[in-house]
Design goal:
The chain has about 160 residues and is mainly α. It folds into two domains: about 40 residues, no CATH class; about 100 residues, no CATH class. About 70% of the residues lie in helices and about 0% in strands. The protein contains seven helices and no strands. The longest helix is centred in the middle third of the chain and has 34 residues. The protein is elongated and about 55 Å long. About 15% of the residues are buried.
């Protein structure tokens, strides 16, 4: 059951009962919501939610396998951390982190393309290729997964 469905069911259930001011009831409802949110956030890997559709739709699997293999990752940045626009030296230093990440991402993309081509040559289905690339993504260093947004840490990233 998806997080949205779970939340909707909880809201519908809550609306079916009379409002309460019972502190223990309100506390347990808030705790259940917090636990549900925390669990779903810690288990989110970017493209994993496509797996059910990839397994059932061969055309979609073809597109997703190619995209997962050939589209390079980009560095997620917090624009609030950007230096002032009038400080050219600070901007060069700040953007150098993106340049370094692009170099690392190019190496990762080469590995994904290698997985894609090898599995295509062996006759694997596009769904199998997509899932293999997702496994590869999960095996990357956690630092890379976070910087590239492969793993979802919170609501915004």
């Amino acid at each position: 059951m998806s997080d949205i469905t779970s939340a909707t069911n909880m809201i519908v259930t809550a609306l079916q009962f009379k409002p309460t001011t019972n502190a223990s009831t309100l506390s347990s409802t808030n705790q259940a919501t917090a636990n549900s949110s925390a669990t779903s956030i810690t288990q989110r890997h970017g493209w994993d939610h496509f797996i059910p559709d990839v397994e059932t739709d061969p055309a979609f699997a073809t597109t997703m396998a190619k995209d997962a293999a050939f589209i390079p990752d980009k560095l997620l940045v917090n624009l609030n951390d950007a230096p002032p626009l009038n400080d050219a030296e600070a901007w060069r230093a700040w953007t150098s982190q993106s340049t370094q990440f692009d170099s690392d991402a190019a190496k990762v993309t080469e590995q994904r393309v290698g997985i894609y081509k090898d599995m295509k040559f062996q006759g694997s289905t596009d769904a199998e290729i997509f899932k293999a690339i997702m496994e590869f993504n999960h095996s990357l260093p956690m630092d890379y997964q976070i910087k590239s947004g492969l793993i979802k840490l919170d609501t915004y990233a």
